[in-house]
Amino acid sequence: MPLPRRLNAVRLGAVRLGAVRLGAVRLGAVRLGAVRLGAVKYGGPREPTPVRPQQPPTSTPRMTTRTAFAIAAHPDDIEFMMAGTLLHLKSAGFEIHYMNLANGCCGSTERDAATTAMIRRGEAIRAAASIGAVFHESICNDLEIFYDLANLRRLTSIVREVAPEIVLTHSPVDYMEDHTNACRLAVTAAFARGMPNFQVDPPRNAVRQAVTVYHAQPYSNHDPLRRLVEPDFFVDVGDMVETKVAMLACHASQKQWLDESQGIDAYLQALRDSDAEVGRMSGAFRYAEGWRRHLHLGFCSAAAAPLETALSDRIVARRARDGGEGPSFP
Question: Smallest Cα–Cα separation from 178: which of 46, 110, 76, 32?
Fold first, then answer.
């Protein structure tokens, strides 16, 4: 029997365009929309909001607060790969924001998906609060971070709300597709931030804020074909690594699960080991996070390097490590 589908029509002047609503097809998806936590309706998978013309197209001027936005796939990804740099940016005067696109619902072999997602949401809120970051709700389930229009409309709306100068996100290629697709969504949402004719969910005006996108190291520092990935530059997180560990410890459900299956304190030690490996790659720091800067076209000026400028006393570039001239930051 064919799957049901609903057709919406968007009226744009005299042109009538039929759009297929895929949200009506549910293939065993976990519906968390009925769970209310305080005043917040939990954001599980839902149908895309119908596209309505936003007239007239407008944009919001550049914000005065300097803002850095970490966008990752799952609860605890920011802690592992981005939190040290995010903390340094906060110390440099940035307002910091924290978002996991997926809700963590698959992170248990003992609890059901809805219960797991609620637990992991609370853990992520505590981790974000522990460093004074603004927390943003997830938009989908684990393994459902698809590069699709519904997710893109939702994330772009949030990017317009935050209007970040810096976006920290995953490597363009990583060991699992949730990470890779989270990166793709973050990049396109940043790109579409200033396009008033791209309609978002919920509706928000486009913003003029220039944004520079940075990619963290892939998990394990290797791509899916086992090749080593080296960053453009390294950020010293030696004085932040235990703060990162404390953030990670907020994810108690994951710590218990992995410690029981992999050994005592395996979860927390894995973070230290990962940062130590990047530190060895830097040739300069005991613990480090590695970053690559996205091409500027469509995002910012060619000279824009806000992270390198803000943290210049904590950075070594790969060229400098290899005996080159080192970075040239404005």
Answer: 76
pTM for this predicted structure: 0.80
Measured between alpha carbons, how far is 100 from 136 in angstroms, rounded to an integer?
A: 8
Distance, CA of 270 to CA of 167 (rounded, Å) = 25
Distances (CA, A) of 266 to 18, 248, 289: 52, 12, 20
d(CA 268, CA 271): 6
Parallel, antiparallel, or unpaired for β 212-216 and 40-41? unpaired
Instruction: Name residue 10's beta-bridge partners.
Output: 17
pLDDT digits (tens, 9 = 90+) for 68-113: 999 999 999 999 999 999 999 999 999 999 999 999 999 998 899 9
Q: Roughly how many angstroms between the first and final C-alpha of the chain, as a whole number?
A: 61
Q: Which residues contact 69 (CB under 8 A, 6 or more apart)?
A: 96, 97, 99, 159, 162, 164, 166, 167, 168
Q: Give me the domains of the chain, ranges plus CATH numbers.
A: 65-321 (3.40.50.10320)
Instruction: Look up residue 220 and give its two tokens.
Output: 């394990």
pLDDT tens per residue, range 229-288: 999 999 999 999 999 999 999 999 988 777 776 666 788 999 999 999 999 999 999 999
Q: CA 29, 70, 190, 160 torsion: positive or negative?
A: positive
Q: What angle do CA 207, 77, 39 make, to 5 degrees?
A: 65
